[in-house]
Design a protein that fits this description.
69% helix
């Protein structure tokens, strides 16, 4: 399995760290707390990429792994929908509660990115279920 796990973690960690140094909340908390909070938000958005890469390399996804990633995708979709609905419901006031500058937009963008990363997998998962397959087979272009 080690040969299938070829995703370098620094491809995810370094951009998230740099982005968190540049764009972080503008609250009254200590600067390190704000940077770590931003790092967590950005990292969470792309944290599933290594798992998706392993699944892409193996081409066959076991049912328990497929069910978990699908459930994660549904949860992320609902979380993203919650954020969007809250922003619409408060007429944008929620964004100002998160701070000012680029940070509120980056929180929403991070949620959206994570949702779209998992949406592709969820499509193939549902397609597999409708086709009656127990084991999910991914095409080479996924992820």
């Amino acid at each position: 399995m080690d040969d299938k796990d070829n995703f370098k973690s620094y491809y995810v960690l370094v951009p998230c760290a740099v982005l968190s140094l540049l764009i972080h909340p503008t609250t009254q908390h200590h600067i390190l707390n704000r940077i770590f909070w931003a790092f967590c938000v950005y990292l969470e958005a792309v944290s599933v990429l290594p798992q998706l890469r392993v699944m892409q390399n193996t081409k066959i996804v076991q049912p328990f792994t497929a069910h978990y990633v699908f459930a994660l995708g549904v949860a992320r979709f609902l979380s993203c929908a919650h954020w969007v609905l809250q922003v619409l419901d408060t007429h944008g006031r929620l964004l100002t509660a998160l701070g000012y500058g680029l940070w509120p937009s980056m929180v929403l963008l991070s949620e959206t990115v994570q949702t779209f990363i998992l949406a592709d997998f969820c499509y193939y998962y549902v397609k597999s279920l409708v086709g009656g397959q127990l084991v999910l087979r991914l095409p080479s272009g996924v992820v």
